Amino acid sequence: MTAAPLFSGILFALAAGLMWGLVFVGPLLLPEYPATLQSFGRYLAFGLIALPLAWFDRGRLKQLVRADWIEALKLALVGNIVYYLFLASAIQRAGGPLPTMIIGTLPVVIAITSKLRTARVGTRAEAPLAWGRLLPSLLLIGAGIALVNRVELEHLRADPNADLARYAIGGLLAIGAVACWTWYPIRNAEWLRAHPDRSPRGWATAQGLMTLPLALVGYALTWLCHLASGDPFPLPFGPRAADFVLLMFAIGLFSSWLGTLCWNEASQRLPPTLSGQLIVFETLAALSYAFVLRKSWPQAGTLVGVALLIAGVIWAVRTQPAQATVDAHPN
Q: Which of 67, 186, 202, 237 has the fewest Cβ atoms nearer than 10 Å?
């Protein structure tokens, strides 16, 4: 791997992390809104944003065959809709930091899963990377996440109003989000690296288009369920309609489309064992945003944990795997 793709790939991963960190803000700013409404609202906005973008990307989208659109639909369902349902529900029950730290295990989980997983037929197989070269960065990142998580748990225990059962449920929901987002980047990277001639921007737009019908159906079903149950929550846009619509479109544009675009660019430049660890940028961004909303500085333990996370990323960048081989794609 040459220095230029490595450096640009890291910058794109950093930009994606900054964008994705914003998704942790929505449930905290709109705590009275159900997680289902926030998830479907965000991706309804994403799908609507993708419509005009599809016109500009129409040439690239015409290159996609039926199998590609089915793959985009799967990625949209698991990596967008289901993932954010889990995450928004977790944040509303456990607050911002705890789900952030659980999601923060993604660099370790994805790297190990990528290491153990056999590449699908027709996708580019990475050259073997020895565990001895991979483990130091994983241990640094894991130690950093554990340290920050310990500080947050102590913060929860000191709160007399804390509902530990509610926090535990939030933690389990966050683990569900981790499962979704372990599958998504690996599968997404496989498609992108099997199609190096395709546009990452076009692929991001394709996923947005596939998200739109899913979000429309989900939003409509949520509305019908609220009407049938007699829930007084005012639909379609809730008690703070302007805030809700503006926030959904902001997250849809910056986190969903722009974040996906940046990540697609990174995925085409970096091997999964490295790109998976760079998702740590999302954790760092989300933590920063959470402390801004708290209007407080992080404790010393949190800062040390963040330093370990950064050290792990730097180590991962220095650990460059050998050049991968390329297999022909079945399409």
A: 67
